[in-house]
């Protein structure tokens, strides 16, 4: 409406980017192994904070510790409080506007899908896992 062609007033925040293409280097030439989002966030949170934040390497190291403990808890059958606790930690990590790589997100989606449908779990625990599956997808 303001200077744009008619019918092009849809928000770019929710509409897909038409320039997607896959190359030998991954999506749009970037390495897809550690890539988080396709486009940068609309607001650069870390640059406007009045204090220094951890670098990307430290963020990923912290996430690796959380994911390792989650997988240990699930392998041990410790769903309550173990896997529930580490699920809360991942939610907190995501609420800080940190991004998961595609591989990390894929692993977590598969895990939470299986956990949400696992027989014998308390219904409230299954709902937490299903909720996390929905957040990740």
Note the main sheet.
2 strands, antiparallel
How many strand elements? 2
**Between the first and last Cα atoms, what is the distance in angstroms?**
32 Å
Relative strand content: under 5%
How would you portray this structure in words?
Residues 8-82 form the Proteasome activator Blm10 N-terminal domain. It holds the Pfam family BLM10_N. Keywords: Proteasome. With 137 residues, this protein is an all-alpha fold. 51% of the residues lie in helices and 3% in strands. The protein has helices at residues 45-48, 56-75, 79-95, 102-116, 123-136, and strands spanning 22-23, 26-27. It is elongated. Residues 8-32 have low confidence and may be disordered.
In short:
51% of the residues lie in helices and 3% in strands.
Output the keywords.
two-stranded antiparallel ribbon, 137 residues, 5 helices, mainly alpha
Compile the SSE list and pairings.
Layout (H helix, E strand, L loop, with lengths): L21 E2 L2 E2 L17 H4 L7 H20 L3 H17 L6 H15 L6 H14 L1
Antiparallel strand pairs: 1-2
Helix pairs in contact: 2-3, 3-5, 4-5
